[in-house]
Amino acid sequence: MTRIDDLPVRDELRGKSPYGAPQLDVPVRLNTNENPYPLPEPLVERIAERVREAARDLNRYPDRDAVQLRTELAKYLTNTGKYPIGVEHVWAANGSNEVIQQLLQTFGGPGRTAIGFEPSYSMHALIARGTGTGWIPGPRNEDFTIDLAAAERAIAEHKPDVVFITTPNNPTGNAVAPDTVLALYEAAQAAKPSMVVVDEAYVEFSHGDSLLPLLEGRPHLVVSRTMSKAFGAAGLRLGYLAADPAVVDAVQLVRLPYHLSAVTQATALAALEHTDTLLKYVEQLKAERDRLVAELRATGYDVIESDANFVQFGRFTDSHEAWQKILDRGVLVRDNGVPGWLRVSAGTPEENDAFLDAVREVKKELE
Ligand code: PMP
């Protein structure tokens, strides 16, 4: 049998594992920060309609620049972000993972580096590796906030080409204060200047506002967003960014032609027509997230304050053992490899009840 290492793969890929949150068939899946609510039926109908229209033109390549979709995304950002965004500031791709990949292909790559403050979204490092960008694991405080002085020192020392700031952060759930983002931007400009990518995949769930207004006068700042979480459309694969129009021009140097299929564009446009309904689910999820925080604390767990649709809780002597015990009770949560902690995504009230019952039992068992 041929194994990967028998192939002439790039040295930096040897012995590595692919991204892999387990996709297990259990009654309650709260491990990948998905939105638990299926799309409402009228939206499903509208998607079918728009995809049917798009199908009539599938003999042609799609709009390479996805202008209509980017225009609607820009309107959504303007309406919700307290800052005017035009189509020329927006770029879209297949999930924000692809947005990040395009950014690293454009601003990273061989001989260049990117930094992120860990623990954070593991794909930043993996996409860096895939694009030949050197990865620098930056520091965080014990309580998972960014240690600003240490982060500034790391930026000054390594002079990375790309700085990732995930806010709200995954897996810890906490948001980064705008002042901290501004200070890191300044540090990155002084050191290089580098591009600063603010990953706002979860911002719709935040108690605070989006950092979009910081784009004003900062051409090296990029805000990355997704329809996977707040829009409940992880299966759609639609991510986007807002930045200076020059950034939008720059990523077009690396994007594959026609990367966003006509079916994707049609589906995303249908979903955007239903923004108001979808954002009501976000409100329910925020309330459930707050309930999870309160009830976990009442049960005696440590919980990191969350601005996302998930909660990091602990502490466990052996988080993998705790993960398994919760799974034995039919509930799948996430062990991100942060020692002592696990992460649970906010589900429906019934799913969250099942999770809370499970962790109450596990707490007793582990005592
Ligand atoms: N950024 C963060 C912080 C995430 O947690 C995720 C998804 N888990 C993504 C980006 C990627 O999302 P998508 O590719 O589905 O847009």
UniProtKB/TrEMBL annotation:
Residue intervals passing through the bilayer: none
Record carries keyword Transferase: yes
SUPFAM superfamilies on file: PLP-dependent transferases
Domain Aminotransferase class I/classII large: 28-358
Stretches for region Disordered: 1-23
Domain of life: Bacteria
Residues with PTM N6-(pyridoxal phosphate)lysine: 229
Stored CDD domains: AAT_like (cd00609)
EC class (word): transferase
Keywords: Amino-acid biosynthesis, Aminotransferase, Histidine biosynthesis, Pyridoxal phosphate, Transferase
Cofactor(s) named in the record: pyridoxal 5'-phosphate
Catalysed reaction equations from the record: L-histidinol phosphate + 2-oxoglutarate = 3-(imidazol-4-yl)-2-oxopropyl phosphate + L-glutamate
NCBIfam families for the chain: hisC (TIGR01141), PRK03317.1 (NF002877)
Subunit structure: Homodimer.
Protein family membership: Belongs to the class-II pyridoxal-phosphate-dependent aminotransferase family. Histidinol-phosphate aminotransferase subfamily.
Protein name: Histidinol-phosphate aminotransferase
Gene this protein is translated from: hisC
